Amino acid sequence: MAPPARQWPVCRKRWAGFFRALAGRPWQGADTLSLDESGLWQLASPAGTMPLRLVHAWPSAAWVALRFEPGHPSQQGGPLAFTLWKRGLPDHAWRELRLCVEQQIAMPRRILPKEHA
Questions:
Q1: Cβ atoms of 9 and 29 closer than 8 Å
Q2: Which end of the chain is more exposed for a tag (fewer CB within 10 A), N or C?
């Protein structure tokens, strides 16, 4: 997989990101959501990296809610959902996230490279 081109901090705790965003402070969480140059999403955590497939996005003026499924059929676990808040990201990161999500929504379903299948 290509190195990540764009990265955003995420928190798996349901309301922690919301309260940090209300305070206007970016989340300094341990997990990072990224999108590489080939258009594949991944979640990096201290436990490792997991490829993801964007299945739905709910953009709004103040947040973007994203739902992902595991990007590889052998991965265990159900869907993951993240809400990224505008106030919790620098302006350039917010614009880049919105643009990337809009491009992903417009593209057909992504298939992982053969090495991951």
A1: yes
A2: C
pTM over the 0.70 mark: yes
Residue 63 and residue 52: Cα distance in Å, rounded?
20
The CA-based dihedral angle spanning residues 87, 90, 52, 105, taken in that order and rounded to the nearest 10 degrees: 80
Residue 117 pLDDT > 80: no
What is the rounded CA–CA span in Å between residue 63 and residue 85?
A: 4
Query: What is the residue-wise DSSP string for 37-66?
Result: TTS-EEEEETTEEEEEEEEEEEE-SSEEEE
- CB-based contact 41:52 (threshold 8 Å): yes
pLDDT-based confidence at residue 109 (cuts at 50, 70, 90): low
